[in-house]
Amino acid sequence: MALRDALRFVAGLHAFNGAISELEDVVEKILFMQLAEKWFALMSEDLEVEEDYIEDDLEHNRVMTWQ
């Protein structure tokens, strides 16, 4: 009887560890997706700033060529 209880305990512990592992994988994926979204947002902001600088440079060059 004690052996059977011990085996049930070990099986339950194994199932619990498996569930925790799956949960950790899900959390890791969620965190990775959040990081990717933030990185994409930062890159988009940088591209917008670069486009503004390019437009300003082009406008400045147009003004300089007309003078």
Secondary structure blueprint with pairings:
Blueprint: H1 2-66
Description of the molecule:
This is Str. FM013. There is one protein chain. The protein is an all-alpha fold and 67 residues long. The chain has one domain (1-64). It is 97% helix and 0% strand. The chain has 1 helix and no strands. The protein has one helix spanning 2-66. The longest helix is centred in the middle third of the chain and has 65 residues, at 2-66. The mean pLDDT is 78.
Comma- or semicolon-separated keywords:
67 residues; mainly alpha; 1 helix; rod-shaped
Give a brief description.
It is built from 1 helix and no strands.
Oligomer: single chain
Largest sheet: none
Distance between the termini: 99 Å
Estimate the helix proportion, in percent: over 70%
Structural class: mainly alpha
Organism: Penicillium camemberti (strain FM 013)
Protein name: Str. FM013
